[in-house]
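Task: sequence in, structure out. Protein: Phosphomevalonate kinase.
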Amino acid sequence: MAHLVVSASGKVLLAGGYLVLDPAYSGVVVSTSSRFYSVISNGKNDRIVVKSPQFINATWSYTWSISQSALSSSIVVSQLDTPAASKNKFVHLALQKTLSLALEVNGPAELERSLGAGLHITIAGDNDFYSQQDQLKSRNLPVSLSSLAEIPPFNPTGVGLADVAKTGLGSSAALITSLVTALLVQTGVIAPDQLASASSRRLAHNVAQFVHCLAQGKVGSGFDVSAAVFGSQLYTRFSPAVLQPIMDDSSGSQSLLSALAPENRAWDLTVTPFTLPPRTRLLLADIHAGSNTPLLVSQVLKWRAANSATAHSLWTALDQCNTSLGRTLARLTELYERDQHAYVETVRWVSGLQPRQWLANPNMQQEQSTCLEAFYEAHLLTEQIRAKMREMGKLSGVEIEPEQQTKLLDASVSMAGVIGGGVPGAGGFDAVWLLVCEPPEDTPGIPPLPRVERLWTSFPGVAPLLAQESKRQGVTLERLDDVPGLAAVVETAARD
Ligand SMILES: Nc1ncnc2c1ncn2[C@@H]1O[C@H](COP(=O)(O)OP(=O)(O)O)[C@@H](O)[C@H]1O
Ligand SMILES: C[C@@](O)(CCOP(=O)(O)OP(=O)(O)O)CC(=O)O
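Result:
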């Protein structure tokens, strides 16, 4: 049977937490190699059955009905009420709103044709979206990247969705983006060979952003959906006003297309593509906890509103550091392109020394010194950002960089070859990030990555994640057999 597979990437907001909620500031977002996959195949009995086989009690069945009048037509997607049925607002809204848009674009006959006798949809997220520490324990595996690679892909979590320990990589945004985009392709709104085009991506972004906001019951900054669609970027948010007419429209009488069309100029986000510097690797430490982002956000914003002068100067200072970090990391890529040899030699040097020793080489060639200064600047900026985020936490009474994260980060960022790190996004107890140098293999000494891995084993409850920066674009059409383990998940889902 033919399968339509669309994946979307997870995210790490390296810098810009809280600030990015305000269009005056931007965030540095890295999209991850960890992805969510939505796989659509033909279903039966006029049903849309959605399964998430990594979870227990995670099958949701829907019917649809299309009504037509002389003036307009509409579709209603309803969940089939079996006694054991759980609800999934995110999935239900993705179906309801994307199919409504498809109806508006292509009309009822085409929509009926594309839904056929029904759809079977499998959702699967890479293991990194969920803490794997219990898995490692039950398999008697030591805490390491190579142990994680031994856990089968899309491993069942053994729990229901509400009880899973998330790592904070943006599961709901990646899920919604992959599902919405797969439905847009299934219904012919986006032609498969057009998904890479700018206007198809914008459409996928706008619809995913809308569905995600509606499901969350609020308009967040949307950096997570933007990363899921467009990949790593410097992100400045869109004005929430663009979604207001359709967010408030309980009768469904407003045109979705006029709000969500790629041509709608009211979508004023800016997305500047970005990549981490060559020979560096993003490394994440899962601390087996997870954060309640909405609670953190409401407390910080309440403090900001009540202390506008202090907040303004803190926001301004932080923004300068965040922007400089984005610029310095981009400059490192430029320096690599200008003189690869000097850059790689600098990476070798940096990899064997703690950051405070980096500049202690009087005999360096000019090009290498320039690279070294840029690495050191990146280090200093990440430390300044951490200090300011801790200040934000202290002032607002919120644990943005909790003490145990401070200890873990302080120990990690003073190691040889570690450029910097921090608490991503809203901070709290989500996985922390590090940027680590990857010198060529013939460099003497133990490379930074295994050294950091070893350090982390001395912190109870801390484990690395496999996720790295995704070098592919965010939302992508895949071939089922190219994604290890996915065909098996789809087969199991079809059998049950
Ligand atoms: N693997 C999945 N399968 C189905 N639905 C999922 C999956 N992961 C997340 N969701 C949906 O997203 C919701 C989680 O949203 P939320 O807790 O806001 O996550 P996040 O912190 O990733 O944004 C779940 O209640 C569910 O509706
Ligand atoms: C505070 C924020 O600026 C960043 C939150 O980033 P996280 O990465 O913590 O987000 P979640 O995955 O949703 O928990 C809020 C926002 O931008 O919407």
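The two ends are 17 Å apart (CA to CA).
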